[in-house]
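task queued by scheduler; priority normal; single chain, no ligands, no partner chains; default sampling; output format set to C-alpha cells
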Amino acid sequence: MIDLYTWTTPNGRKVSILLEELGLPYTVHPVDITKDEQFAPDFLKIAPNNRIPAIVDHDADVAMMETGAIMLYLAEKYDRFLCHGKDRWQMMEWLMWQMGGFGPMLGQVHHFVKYNLGKSAYAEDRYSKEAQRLYRVLDHHLTGRDYVAGSGRGDYSIADMAIWPWASRFEWQNIDLADYPAVKDWYCRIAARPAVQRGYQIPHYVTDVPMPA
C-alpha cells in the first residue's frame, strides 16, 4: 500500500495522475500548504525539504520526496510509462526540463503575475517572457508528435505526466494555448484520459480540468 501526501498543486497532481494511471491502491493524506501543514514534524520525517508531494511505499519500506524521483521510482517498479533504449534518455531530458525550467519558471509567473500583480514590473515581464519561451520550446518539439518522448510520434510517459499539470494552469500564466497549437493538441489529448481527470481532483475537487477555448 502507498500513502500519498499531497495538495492541489501541479507538483502534487503529477504523482496522483501517475498513481491513477498505474491503477494502484493508495491512501491520500492532504497536506494543506495554505495552513503550513508541510512544516509539521511528522511530515518532515517523510519529506525533509518540507514540500509536497511525498510517498511512503509500505510494501518496500520506502519513503520518498521530490516528484521526479517519485515518478521514476513508481514507473520503474511497475515497468510502465517508461521509454526504453535510447528513447529513455529523451524521456529523461524532458522530465528534467520540466523539473529545472517549466515548473520553476511557471511557478514564478504564478507568484508575480497571479498573486502579486503590480508589485514588480520587472519580475512580471521577466517570468512572463520566459514562460512564453518555454511554451514555444514545447510547441516546437511537439509539432508532428503525440507525446514528448519516444520514437515516431512518441509514447505516453512520465515526462508527459510531469509537464501536463503545469500547463493546466495556462490561465494563471496568461497563456493562450491557441498560440501553441501543438501544445494545445497534446494538452487536450492528455486531459481526455480518465486517469488524468481523476488524478487532477486529488486530494479534493477544486475545479474541472481547465480546457482551452
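post-processing summary
- The chain has two domains: 2-78, 87-193.
- The mean pLDDT is 98.
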